[in-house]
Amino acid sequence: MSDKLTHVNKQGEAKMVDVGDKPFQKRTAKATGFIQLHPQTIALIQGNLIKKGDVLSVARIAAIQAAKQTHFIIPLCHALLLSKVDVDFELKSDGIQVFSLSRCEGKTGVEMEALTAVSVALLTIYDMCKAVDKDMVMTGIKLLEKTKV
């Protein structure tokens, strides 16, 4: 782990990193997160019986939209031209695992976009299910992989 903070100037103030001299590279990031749900809530989601609508479809669209807007949400992120954002869900007996993949050709990584997609998918599931499940817990949001070629 590097001990140099790249987003802080010599005075300790926040700054945006200059990536202008870096080469364009194909960049990919994968992230995941989990939301713990009651089995009854999972059954409602599977049966498309949540009153707010199709939970997983709405969460997927929200996640993709959030990934595209990451630079507006996270102050020091660069605006990236994303070429792909995928969001998938794995329903388990105790909740839903969310996976995201973000891809671009650019001068900086896409991990914040992948993490933002996962986070917003989880928040959307939470929002859509809060009327029927008061014990939801979001955990394990993390970067799984980051590549550049």
Automatic annotation (TrEMBL):
Q: Which residues cross the membrane?
A: none
Q: Does the keyword Lyase apply?
A: yes
The catalytic activity of this protein is classed by the Enzyme Commission as: 4.6.1.17
Top-level EC class: lyase
Q: Catalysed reaction(s)?
A: (8S)-3',8-cyclo-7,8-dihydroguanosine 5'-triphosphate = cyclic pyranopterin phosphate + diphosphate
Task: Give the Gene Ontology MF terms in alphabetical order.
Answer: cyclic pyranopterin monophosphate synthase activity; GTP 3',8'-cyclase activity
Q: What role does this protein play?
A: Catalyzes the conversion of (8S)-3',8-cyclo-7,8-dihydroguanosine 5'-triphosphate to cyclic pyranopterin monophosphate (cPMP).
- From the Swiss-Prot or TrEMBL record, give the protein name: cyclic pyranopterin monophosphate synthase
- Organism expressing this protein natively: Saccharicrinis carchari
